[in-house]
């Protein structure tokens, strides 16, 4: 049969891709790659970039381009057929990765090239690629005896399967819960949330309202719904997803997957000579030791604890004195926080929706990158799409297309939650031409309702800018070697620098003037409303920091201490971390860990701290713009050339010092967060 995944395309031919194409294509390409690599090695030394590494890069890129649309469809258009196809590919790719990583002759060829006279004459990106590869050979167990090599492969394969199953369980558990509701039950919900619930009901064949666990439905209920019992019901359904408790108790329970994953990660780390998985994780990150990570997180906790406790006391006092609530339950926190915010600042997230239509926000975002980097962004109307929500854009520099990106903004039932950037094509030099980068940018915002445009909250605006920051890191790279192009080869605890950096423009008066505009009148965001937004920027910031530190410490300590004497269970460690840093203690039935996809189904295992680590870098980087002008083109070009264009070609600390003139200072983060110490 004709298989579109085996053809060369500039963009994935989504309309022609079927689930049945995936496994045969991946099998064929893996076999092709293996044979080709053996042939290259058989030619014998002396090995060079041109006769070994360039051909291997071409082979690897072909495999990546075949699997990329399969992986993307599994995330954004999930169904049983594509899920089965995706899962069938995972063990094949895992086994191939192990074969590559443990290939002794291949490792020796890389080492020979590294030891040769020609190595010093190679471009820095090529040298870094070889150095990273030699590190990764070691981390793949290339020097292990045969039995241990085989065990490594088994562990990697099983961990890949467990991660996929974890994510599937979260998606299925999320989709399984919904509840019809009357208008009376939903009293207090903003009109946008009501319209979303009404549209969901209509699509399901009901004539009332339907709420579910997708973020645009779940979050407004917790923040605005006057019905306390309903808030408790949806909170309970959400925090018990994929667990032994809740409305679907045991049906998609991730508990055993968590313990199996932790067991296997520890075995993997020890097989490679590390004490634990946290140490293994840091082998490819900026942070040098587990102690430095723990110390960093505990320092932030110590500097913010007093303010976080004060913010919590203020919320408790407010709920008791103004609303007669003697004891705040978990499902009350967002609700009364929103009421306190409105009383103190006379502003709500909902106030911004009329002024943040996607039709205005996107041109505003593109204007920001135009002023910073001289880029033009134009929409491509005619392309092979995978869903009506998907858009395609081109990024131009001086009239030349330098990148493309797909944009998929709205929540739907067959799409995993959250927001992310993934690569579709990486910038690299083919044998005959430059391959330009292509990104996937995905969010889960409220879709257009009742013929009106999609209207964003300010929080959703920052999410969009965050993901576009990742996209710029991928798209603006100047590297032509795939292994260090874009976010490839970038230490994981630095990869959030460009994303968090972009969020800053969502708070700048000069930028908001053209990012925002009333969806009916075009009127700009009123100064009075903007003043309230800025005044409320750091509302409960220390409490939010405490929550992120809770997640970070839990993740890192879990992978550091799992299997040690005294480590009773996942839940006991989470409880211990909460007692150390949390100001809001969830109820005992909360099973947050069972849907913590970042660390059990994503790439953040023993790395969730990266968000805060990189936030220090991004806050300090932005402080230069504060000093020199937020749209200073020279400063923008400096950030572009020293950070974005460099990709993974140099160590992130070198790049930061090159841009900032010094190492990062934590004070910028604390100042931006309004934390006084």
Structural description of this entry:
This protein is of the alpha+beta class and 677 residues long. The chain folds into four domains: 4-101 and 103-139, Glutathione S-transferase Yfyf (Class Pi), Chain A, domain 2; 177-239, no CATH class; 255-347 and 540-608, Orthogonal Bundle (Neurolysin, domain 3), CATH 1.10.1370.10; 353-535, Orthogonal Bundle (Neurolysin, domain 3), CATH 1.10.1370. It has helices at residues 19-42, 49-76, 80-101, 104-115, 124-139, 146-176, 191-203, 215-224, 228-239, 255-271, 277-282, 290-323, 330-345, 358-373, 458-475, 497-503, 509-515, 527-535, 541-561, 570-581, 597-600, 610-628, 633-644, 652-660, 667-672, and strands at 178-181, 209-212, 375-380, 391-397, 400-410, 420-425, 428-429, 434-435, 438-445. Strand 4 (391-397) and strand 5 (400-410) form a beta hairpin.
Which structural class should the secondary elements be placed in?
alpha+beta
Low-pLDDT windows of residues: none
Percentage of helical residues? 55-70%
Helix run count: 25
Look up the CATH topology of the largest domain.
Neurolysin, domain 3
Radius of gyration: 25 Å
Sheet having the most strands? 5 strands, mixed
pLDDT average, as an integer? 97
Strand order of the largest sheet: 3-4-5-9-6
């Amino acid at each position: 049969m004709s298989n579109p995944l085996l053809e060369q395309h500039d963009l994935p031919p989504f309309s022609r891709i079927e689930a049945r194409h995936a496994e045969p294509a991946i099998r064929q390409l893996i076999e092709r790659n293996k044979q080709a690599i053996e042939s290259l090695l058989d030619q014998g030394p002396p090995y060079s970039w041109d006769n070994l590494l360039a051909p291997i890069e071409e082979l690897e890129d072909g495999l990546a381009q075949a699997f990329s649309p399969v992986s993307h469809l599994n995330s954004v258009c999930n169904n049983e057929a594509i899920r089965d196809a995706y899962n069938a590919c995972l063990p094949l790719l895992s086994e191939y990765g192990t074969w590559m990583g443990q290939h002794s002759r291949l490792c020796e060829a890389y080492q020979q090239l590294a030891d040769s006279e020609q190595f010093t004459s190679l471009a820095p990106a090529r040298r870094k690629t070889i150095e990273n590869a030699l590190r990764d050979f070691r981390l793949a167990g290339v020097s292990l005896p045969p039995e241990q090599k085989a065990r490594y492969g088994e562990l990697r394969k099983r961990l890949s399967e467990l991660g996929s199953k974890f994510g599937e369980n979260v998606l299925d558990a999320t989709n399984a819960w919904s509840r019809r509701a009357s208008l009376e039950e939903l009293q207090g919900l903003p009109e946008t949330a009501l319209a979303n619930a009404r549209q969901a009901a209509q699509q399901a064949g009901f004539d009332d309202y339907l709420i579910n666990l997708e973020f645009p439905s779940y979050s407004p209920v917790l923040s605005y719904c006057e019905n306390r019992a309903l808030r408790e019901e949806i909170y309970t359904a959400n925090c018990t997803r994929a667990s032994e408790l809740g409305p679907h108790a045991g049906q998609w329970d991730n508990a055993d997957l968590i313990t199996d994953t932790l067991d296997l990660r520890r075995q993997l780390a020890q097989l490679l000579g590390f004490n634990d998985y946290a140490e293994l994780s840091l082998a490819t990150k900026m942070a040098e030791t587990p102690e430095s990570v723990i110390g960093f997180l505990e320092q932030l906790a110590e500097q913010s604890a007093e303010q976080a406790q004060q913010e919590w006391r203020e919320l408790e006092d407010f709920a008791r004195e103004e609303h007669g609530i003697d004891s705040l339950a978990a499902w009350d926190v967002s609700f009364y926080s929103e009421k306190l915010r409105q009383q103190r600042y006379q502003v709500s997230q909902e106030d911004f929706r009329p002024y943040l239509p996607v039709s205005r926000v996107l041109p505003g975002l593109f204007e920001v990158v135009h002023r910073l980097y001289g880029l033009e962004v134009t929409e491509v109307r005619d392309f092979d799409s995978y869903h009506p929500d998907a858009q395609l854009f081109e990024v131009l520099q001086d009239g030349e297309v330098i990148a493309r990106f797909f944009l998929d903004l709205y929540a739907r039932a067959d799409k995993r939650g959250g927001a992310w950037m993934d690569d579709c094509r990486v910038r690299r030099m083919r044998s005959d031409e430059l391959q330009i980068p292509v990104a996937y940018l995905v969010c889960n915002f409220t879709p257009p309702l009742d013929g009106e445009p999609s209207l964003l909250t300010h929080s959703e605006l920052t999410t969009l800018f965050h993901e576009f920051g990742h996209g710029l890191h991928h798209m603006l790279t100047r590297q032509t070697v795939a292994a260090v192009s874009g976010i490839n080869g970038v230490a994981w605890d630095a990869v959030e620098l460009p994303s968090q950096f972009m969020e800053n423009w969502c708070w700048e008066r000069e930028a908001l003037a053209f990012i925002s505009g009333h969806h009916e009148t075009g009127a700009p965001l009123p100064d009075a409303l903007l003043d309230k937004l800025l005044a409320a920027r750091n509302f409960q910031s220390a409490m939010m920091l405490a929550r992120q530190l809770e997640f970070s410490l839990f993740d890192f300590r879990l992978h550091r201490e799992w299997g040690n004497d005294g480590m009773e269970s996942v839940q006991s460690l989470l409880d211990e971390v909460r007692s150390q840093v949390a100001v809001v203690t969830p109820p005992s039935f909360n099973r947050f860990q069972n849907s913590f996809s970042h660390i059990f189904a994503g790439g953040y295992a023993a790395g969730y701290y990266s968000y805060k680590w990189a936030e220090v870098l991004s806050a300090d980087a932005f402080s230069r713009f504060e000093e020199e002008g937020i749209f200073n083109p020279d400063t923008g070009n400096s950030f572009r050339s020293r950070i974005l264009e460099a990709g993974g070609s140099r160590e992130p600390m070198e790049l930061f010092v090159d841009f900032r003139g010094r190492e990062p200072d934590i004070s910028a983060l604390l100042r931006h967060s309004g934390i006084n110490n």
